[in-house]
Design goal:
Helices cover 64% and strands 0% of the residues. It contains four helices and no strands. It has helices spanning 3-9, 14-35, 39-74, 110-125. Residues 67-113 are annotated as: Disordered. Residues 67-78 have a biased composition (Basic and acidic residues).
Amino acid sequence: MMEYEKDLVSVKTEEAEIVWRSSMMRIVSGFIYKSQQHENIRKICQASLLDLELKVEQELAKLDMGNHVEKEGNHLEADETPILDPPQAKSKGSNGRVEGHFEKRKPKSGKTSSSKYFIFSTFLFF
């Protein structure tokens, strides 16, 4: 591992994950390049990588079993996306368009009431 990689290992950030992933890729690609010359070394490398993959899958399955119990309580599936606010459907035979929220507002009657008050107040003073 490089010196700058050792500092980032303790920090759990996206950058640290990228550095760790790159470091592992360098190690594995080094094994592959070294083993491509000879057939028996290639078999050893392939068997080691397949064994490593099997061990990782077993550990992930153990971790997933603990999470599986929590998922059953929520009854949510991973490939299901909830529909939060679906568009309103028009009734059959309706040709009218659905009005937006700006069109549904009632017009304000602020000017008419104040103008009536102004006219009323002018008559009182004369």
